[in-house]
Design brief:
- With 170 residues, the chain is mainly α.
- It has 7 helices and no strands.
- It is globular and about 50 Å long.
- It starts with a helix and ends in a 15-residue tail after the last helix.
């Protein structure tokens, strides 16, 4: 784990991406409702924490340094994911559309990750080229991530706060 402590911001965010991809694969292979529920809960926790640390720390650090459209799309993609996360959290594996919601969430996250990690013109590449202090950002992201995980494990996931959606139905 000492190696984890030295991850820069991009390495930390990419590690989160790989962890969630693995959880989605496990969900696809799961057969019991209990296993699906446990995996979906873990996916929702991981993604909720990840979106919070990106929106609170990484994206603001990128503002004015990367393509504005890319950043705006990322916020909208996060909001779409938050809506599905809320629906998955409120549902159960016995619900008719539960598996479909997890699958669509997986596909949305896959697209989002591709845009962040794309070589040359992706968000991470642009942020690195802009000269952001990735080590300092990594420390900040890690500390906030640890605090959020502890908070959410103690009190459950919060009602989603969307950046781009104006709605009271969430």
């Amino acid at each position: 784990m000492a190696e984890d402590r030295k991850q820069d911001a991009i390495a930390l965010l990419k590690a989160d991406h790989r962890a969630v991809e693995e959880l989605f694969e496990q969900f696809e292979a799961a057969r019991s409702a209990a296993a699906k529920r446990q995996l979906a809960t873990q996916i929702c926790l991981e993604l909720t924490v990840h979106t919070r640390i990106e929106e609170e720390i990484f994206y603001p650090a990128c503002e004015g340094k990367i393509e504005e459209d890319l950043l705006k799309e990322a916020y909208v993609e996060h909001d779409g994911a938050k809506v599905l996360i809320a629906e998955i959290e409120a549902g159960s594996p016995e619900d008719e559309y539960y598996d479909a919601k997890v699958k669509v969430l997986s596909e949305q996250i896959e697209h989002h990750v591709e845009e962040e990690e794309m070589r040359m013109e992706g968000m991470f590449s642009q942020a690195r080229k802009a000269g952001l202090d990735m080590d300092a950002l990594g420390d900040e992201l890690r500390a906030r991530k640890e605090a959020l995980i502890a908070e959410y494990k103690a009190s459950g996931l919060p009602r989603p706060e969307t950046t781009t959606l104006e709605t009271t139905s969430l």
